[in-house]
Design a protein that fits this description.
single chain; Recoverin, domain 1; about 60% helix
Length: about 110
């Protein structure tokens, strides 16, 4: 595992502790991070903009529906909005790995990464 990825995972874990008040499951966090591939190293694609409706729609379609296999419904966007709100509007750098981790946990879909 690259040093850069290790540092990013530590940063994500710090966000989960600090913003969500939870102790991260490091194995699962690593799987979510690895699942994102090289996008975690790109300044733009490694973040989720909480104020961009089309981006939130993409998270819903590509992650919740395609990756996690959930059925579309209002609860999907509600969960995304909840994670974004908990992350905090003052936090401009909402890491995609953290958002995906929290959503997978919320929907109890950790098994997708097994």
């Amino acid at each position: 595992m690259s040093n850069k990825r290790v540092l990013l995972i530590e940063q994500y874990a710090a966000d989960i502790r600090g913003k969500f008040g939870e102790t991260p499951d490091m194995d699962f966090l690593k799987k979510v991070t690895v699942g994102l591939g090289p996008s975690i190293y790109n300044r733009d694609s490694s973040k989720v903009s909480g104020t961009d409706a089309s981006e939130l729609e993409t998270v819903k379609k590509n992650f919740l529906i395609k990756k996690l296999g959930l059925s579309d419904g209002p609860e999907l966007m509600e969960a995304i909005q909840s994670v974004i709100a908990t992350y905090g509007s003052s936090e401009r750098n909402k890491h995609r790995a953290v958002v995906y981790y929290m959503l997978a946990k919320h929907f109890k879909k950790e098994s997708v990464y097994s």
